[in-house]
Amino acid sequence: MKGKVLAKTADVPVGGGTLNEDLKIVVTQPEEGVYKAFSSLCTHKGCVVSTPENNVITCACHGSEFAADSGKATKGPATGGLAAYQVKVEGDGIVVA
């Protein structure tokens, strides 16, 4: 997966994010210029999470919430955090480091 482009920086708003449905990864920008990437599969039952808003990643199936800066579960029923990917910016793309 190393080197795969996950998203364009312009498509990831501060406090929000975007889903890469093909790779099942959610990309966030919790603060200006800081990009994070996590598995988009909820740790509760494996549902795909929704596009992040207000620095929160939410699972549409059962309402679990995860922090957009760490992937940590902040509201159940999920108790485990989302798996994280190391990313870097190359040009206008966010890629797996």
From TrEMBL:
Keyword list, A-Z: 2Fe-2S, Disulfide bond, Iron, Iron-sulfur, Metal-binding
GO cellular component, as recorded: membrane
Lineage top rank: taxon: Bacteria
Its job: Iron-sulfur subunit of the cytochrome bc1 complex, an essential component of the respiratory electron transport chain required for ATP synthesis. The bc1 complex catalyzes the oxidation of menaquinol and the reduction of cytochrome c in the respiratory chain. The bc1 complex operates through a Q-cycle mechanism that couples electron transfer to generation of the proton gradient that drives ATP synthesis.
Domain (Rieske) ranges: 4-96
Tagged with keyword Transport: no
Keyword Iron: yes
Native source organism of the sequence: Nonomuraea mesophila
CDD domains: Rieske
Cofactor: [2Fe-2S] cluster
Protein name in UniProt: Cytochrome bc1 complex Rieske iron-sulfur subunit
GO molecular function list: 2 iron, 2 sulfur cluster binding; metal ion binding; monooxygenase activity; oxidoreductase activity, acting on paired donors, with incorporation or reduction of molecular oxygen
